Amino acid sequence: MSIQAKIVRTQSPRAPPARSCYARIDPSIRIRRAIYANDVLLVKRILKSHPHLLHNPDVSHTGLSNSNLHLSASLGHLSICQFLVEAGHEQTGPALNENHETALMLAARAGHIEVVHYLCQADPSWILRRDVHGRDAMMEASRGGHDTVVQILLTYVPGGPGQAVRRADHEGNTALHFASSNGHLLVLRTLLAAGADADYENIWRWTPVAYSASVQAEVYLKGLIAQTKTQAPVRKTKSNMSKEAMKGPQTGGVSGLRLVQEEDDTDDWVSRNIP
């Protein structure tokens, strides 16, 4: 009987409590899981206990050293992004991953409108940051076909939209090249309206039209380019006419008074000196 009792006890050992399994999870992993779950309260609690995990770069093989803000921005979790920025995540400058990408680039690539809007308001200079390929958030949004994101970036970009849409990466591709190669028609219209150069050639001397994703996209882009070139002289003519209309009467009136004064002076001189 005692031998049988021993066998029974060895065959049914006591299982460890479930709580001990979860207690062994590293806090850096727990906070990333909380970000995936969009649990901002749990993120706050973990950072309160472990403030050194504010950035928490992902050192895994496929993590690219993405910080907490990179992860939350790529997932479109606005409340967590707001908390991290207010906690000082970007206090010393925008966090960069191994590809030198900012959180704004990842949000623009994924088309998360609210996150892009918030990050642009937080610091508009992040829009002009480039990655290792020379691309910025505008190019990422254009490549993904996120027209609303492109419009937000054009609204907040320092220096105005005209310069932003003419920037090129290390291969000479502009935002218009990326939009054309992926067939994003709405983005093409937005970029051309902002002043994009449709004749700009990359290092292989290819224009955005040459990268058209389909015949229909090529026809549409050529029509937009022709329409833009037709409207440009009309706008210049109207602006010149309006300027002349504003300046003309004032200048003419002043010069007319001068001419009348000069003629009067001449007549007086003649009448006084010629008998």
TrEMBL record:
Transmembrane residue ranges: none
ANK repeat spans: 171-203
Top-level taxonomy: Eukaryota, Fungi, Dikarya, Ascomycota, Pezizomycotina
Region entry Disordered, spans: 234-275
Cellular component annotations (GO), alphabetically ordered: cytoplasm
Keyword Transmembrane helix attached: no
InterPro entries: Ankyrin_rpt (IPR002110), Ankyrin_rpt-contain_sf (IPR036770)
Pfam family, one: Ank_2
Name this protein carries in UniProt: Protein fem-1 homolog B
Database matches in PANTHER family: ANKYRIN REPEAT CONTAINING (PTHR24173), PROTEIN FEM-1 HOMOLOG B (PTHR24173:SF78)
